[in-house]
Amino acid sequence: DALRAESEQHAAAYASAEEAAAIVEARMALEDVEDPSDGCLLARRLIYSHHIIAPSKRAGLRELAVALGVTALVKIGWPGVIVLEGERGRVDAYVDCIQGWRWKKLAVRGEQEVVAEPDGYLDDVRALPRIFVETSDMS
């Protein structure tokens, strides 16, 4: 029992360190976006993963979406799926950032870009609300 408690404590500390690293990475990715208001190009990405289970990775996905201001719909479990929507530079920064994380398999399976009217707003061409949603059940 003592050994189990100690191993759980170490696992929790490791998850906290991983989560903290993901948050720092999200902030750095935001700094890399050259002009966050660069315009009128909305991007959508569909990303496939072998699985999304680790609490630290799930927290990192959430923190990154909030930091970059992109919509993220995340299906946890086997397989894992991430759907992104937002300004192209921010979506690209999100994808670049998570591709640097350790994954068994991660692939962008779908890409879509929509141009907003020159005098319009990006929100006018959105298909998804500006949220982060995590679900394990898609039925």
Structure characteristics:
41% helix; elongated
- Structure summary, number of beta strands: 5
Number of helices: 3
Topology pattern, helix = H, strand = E: HEHEEHEE
The proportion of residues in beta strands is: 25-35%
Outline = elongated
* Amino- and carboxy-terminal Cα gap: 39 Å
Q: In which range does the helix fraction lie?
A: 40-55%
Would you spell out the secondary-structure blueprint of this structure?
Blueprint (H helix, E strand, L loop, with lengths): L1 H31 L8 E9 L5 H14 L2 E5 L4 E8 H12 L6 E10 L16 E4 L4
Parallel strand pairs: 2-5
Antiparallel strand pairs: 1-3, 1-4, 2-3
What does this molecule look like?
This protein is α+β, with helices and mostly antiparallel strands and 139 residues long. Helices cover 41% and strands 26% of the residues. It contains 3 helices and 5 strands, in the order αβαββαββ. The chain has a 5-stranded mixed β-sheet. Helix 1 runs parallel beside helix 2, helix 1 (2-32) runs antiparallel to helix 3 and helix 2 packs antiparallel against helix 3. The longest helix is centred in the first third of the chain and has 31 residues, at 2-32. It is elongated. It starts with a helix and ends with a strand. The model has no long low-confidence stretch (mean pLDDT 80).
Summed up:
By secondary structure, the chain is α+β, with helices and mostly antiparallel strands. It is 41% helix and 26% strand. Helix 1 runs parallel beside helix 2 (55-68), helix 1 runs antiparallel to helix 3 and helix 2 runs antiparallel to helix 3.
